[in-house]
Amino acid sequence: MTVVATGVDRLEAHLRGRRDAGRALLVPYVTAGISADWTRYVEACAEAGADAVEIGLPFSDPMLDGPTIQEASHRALERGVTPQSLLAELAGLAVQVPLVVMTYANIVLRDGAPAFAERLSAAGVSGLIVPDLPLDELDDVAAPFEAAGVAMILLAAPATRPDRLRRIAERSRGFIYGVTVMGTTGERDSLAASAAGVAERVRAATDRPVLLGFGISRPDHAVQAAAHADGVVVASALMRRVLDGAAPAEVGADVAALRDALDRR
Amino acid sequence: MDLMLRGIADGVVDSARRSMMDDPGPLGRFGRFGGRYVPEALIPACEALEEGFRDAWADATFRATLQQTLELYAGRPTPVTPALRLSAELGVTVLLKREDLAHTGSHKINNVLGQALLARRMGKRHLLAETGAGQHGVATATAAALFGMRATVFMGERDMERQELNVFRMRLLGAEVVPVTSGSRTLKDACSEALRAWVTEVADAHYCIGSVMGPHPYPWMVREFQRVVGEEARAQCAGLLPAAQPDVVVACVGGGSNAAGTFAGFVDTTARLVGVEAAGGAAITDGAPGVLHGFQSQVLQDEAGQVREAHSISAGLDYPGIGPEHAHLADIGRAEYVTATDEEVLAAVERLARAEGILPALESSHALAWVLRAAGTPALPTGSTVLVTLSGRGDKDAEQLAARR
Ligand SMILES: Cc1ncc(COP(=O)(O)O)c(C=O)c1O
């Protein structure tokens, strides 16, 4: 019997299905509003073999982001975009993979969590990552997202202790975001040494999909990370290319190269 | 009301007020504000710091070491000076709590010596700090030199221009000063950058936050380290005033540490508590509930939730948020928060300098500006008494003052 997942379980079911079919998951990231044609980058990512696309809603003070995403966010905000305007653009998009939003707590809570959850749902978003909303601050916030069918994806860091990691794995919906490094987002020359440990520890705690992110910049990094986790998130390396003027098709080609390396691993 | 009844009423007020400005509990909540909104990477460090602080604060030896350092090194207790000529001019009795006389020239040293001793006790050898006016950076550089630690201070590029002298002082003391070029290039961006650096170096470094802000336990811990200001002042007022306590207690508010320390000494009295924010950075007056730099409070922001830049002549008050406990004290009506404009502040600097021979910091002058404005009005009636925390000295502002004359 096939069970069609609905609501908050959609994202996890989608990722699980692909993982269980033997595929390494690839989630590229696009800073919403980075350019007037930013949604074309989202489409290009989806068409190049992404399993989901992460959409960064820019915040003025991105505490966990390094220079590249800071610059991308700044550029977007300078264009006068707002979370509402960006989500409206997203709603009009016809991509075939799930969309996951990443933003900061202040954006989420500005008009209250229920209102934000409704907006995400209306835009067709099925997951949410909020790096400054840790486990302890979740209780007052999580319910409206669950109700709106938006998976609240939690992060685990190299410093996260085992007991807490178990609770994160339990509470997280969609997937668990394993942060490879004690640091901010940003391109790196090599995969952080702490990446494998994080992935192994999360995997030991849960059967949910585990994706690694932060600093995964090249196809060989993605392949290395996929040896320990179910997949990868690639953000700064792609946004660096956009900031340097790469067109949607060029970023699509980068994503295709990542896809290809993961498929041939 | 007859005397006995009033005594009973006061007793009720006192017991309710005593529980204010207390331990905010494991979640670090002050009413609906506070909390710990940080990435997972920082959770173990915040937990360890809370445990370390609870342990140290309950340890008589730690407290004695801190007390001794405050006395023998930092020059505590600082006096309360009756501002006699100003009082005569205004028709109200003005007392000044002289944090300008503390070592390094402001109250910031109280908090920094506490945190540096705590960091050392926890085995950390590197202090990270953000700074606006540079006073907290100088204090951190000073403590690092005193205890043989490394100091890295993040400072907005714009503030580095405004506070050149303090940049030089920090470097002279052996600290590394890192210019922050993102965003508004002021205090808020320096905070973000210090938090990012802390994520990266969390194993070896202690983030020495300069005010009653940041994730739990900082707002509580910094208030406790600044409590000495209010406790000293309360005892000093008792010796100076016939009524033993002032009618009004006023302090400037950036993040709110000098105000929190001052208020903590008077929160269980009937004194009115007044915090003065910069008109261009008034989180209580113009802000809305939000989350910034790891805590929930009132934050200057637009309708979409983007944080607005604060604009003030004083770099130390150029912060779009406010400590969560102040937001709570405002909520419950125990303290009121008002604003002062740049022009009022400049006038207050000159007025105090001429009347009393004391050159106050631009930050502290916000508190004075309110006194000048309120004296003789129902907010501060003729014949009343007011304690003003003079959080720092104005030497650092000389160049800026000269440019504005
Ligand atoms: C002299 C002085 N007063 C006040 C402040 C504001 O800080 P807080 O509100 O934490 O006391 C500063 C900050 O730099 C300062 O240097």
Automatic annotation (TrEMBL), chain A:
Coiled-coil portions: none
Catalytic activity reported: (1S,2R)-1-C-(indol-3-yl)glycerol 3-phosphate + L-serine = D-glyceraldehyde 3-phosphate + L-tryptophan + H2O
Molecular function terms from GO: tryptophan synthase activity
Residues forming the catalytic site: 54, 65
Source organism, top-level taxon: Bacteria
Keyword field contains Lyase: yes
Known pathway: Amino-acid biosynthesis; L-tryptophan biosynthesis; L-tryptophan from chorismate: step 5/5
Pfam families hit by this protein: Trp_syntA (PF00290)
Top enzyme class: lyase
Keywords of this entry: Amino-acid biosynthesis, Aromatic amino acid biosynthesis, Lyase, Tryptophan biosynthesis
SUPFAM superfamilies cross-referenced by the UniProt entry: Ribulose-phoshate binding barrel (SSF51366)
Record has DNA damage as a keyword: no
Assigned EC number: 4.2.1.20
Physiological role: The alpha subunit is responsible for the aldol cleavage of indoleglycerol phosphate to indole and glyceraldehyde 3-phosphate.
HAMAP family: Trp_synth_alpha (MF_00131)
Assembly with partners or alone: Tetramer of two alpha and two beta chains.
Family: Belongs to the TrpA family.
Name of the molecule in the record: Tryptophan synthase alpha chain
Organism for this UniProt entry: Paractinoplanes pyxinae
